[in-house]
Amino acid sequence: QLALLYEEVLYTIRHRLGKPEPHQVADSQELYAYVQKAFGMDTEEHRVIMQQVMELESPIYCLKATVKEAKGILGKDVSGFSDPYCLLGIEAKSQEPAHPDHRKRMKAVVKDLIPEDQIHRTQVISQTLSPVWDETFILEFEDMETASFHLDMWDSDVVESMRHKLGELTDLHGLKRIFKDARKDKGQDDFLGNVVLRLKDLHCWDDRWYQLEPRTETYPNRGHCHLQFLLTHKKRTTTSSRTQPSYTVHRHLLQQLVSYEILQHQAGSIAWDGELSRHASTVLYLHATQKDLSDFHQVMAQWLAYSKLYQSLEFNSNCLLHQITSIEYQWAQERLRPQQKAELAESFQSLLTYGVSLIRRYRIIFPLSVPRSKERLQSLLRVLVQMCKTKAFHELCTLSPDLHHMVSTALKSGTTEWFHMQKEHLKPIVKSMEENGKALSRLLLEVIEDLQQCQKIWNKFFINTLKLNIFSIAYLELESLVAKHVQEQLHEVDSSMSKPTAESLFQLYMNLQELYRMKDFLPRRDGPLALSNFHQWFKEAVPLWLQKAYSTALERAQRAVQMDQLKPFGDHNKHSTSTVDLSTCYAQIVKTWQQLSWPDPEEAFMIMVKLVEDMCKISLMYCRLIKDRAEALSLSEQNEGEAANRLCIVVNNIKQLRLLILKLPAQLDWAQLEQRTGAVIDQQQIQHTLHNQLDSTVACLDHEVRDVVQALATKLEKGIARHIQELSSSNNTKEPEDSIIPLMKFLESELQYLNEHLVQENFKSLLTLLWHHTLSVLSAAAAPQVPSAQHYKRLLCALKSLELCFYAEGCGLPLETLHTAAFLSLETHLGLCSATSRKLIQKYFSKRIQQQLDMSSEKFGAVTIKALYRPSEQKLRVEVLNAANLIPLDSNGSSDPFVQLTLEPRHEFPEVVARTTQCKKNELHPLFDEAFDFLIPPEKCRQEGACLLLTVFDYDTLGSNDLEGEAFFPLRHLPGLEDDDDKADMGRVPQTRLPLTHPKPTDEILRLLESRKGDKEAQAFVKLRKQRAKQSKETE
Question: What PROSITE patterns would the database entry show (predicted)?
Answer without folding.
Answer: C2, MHD1, MHD2
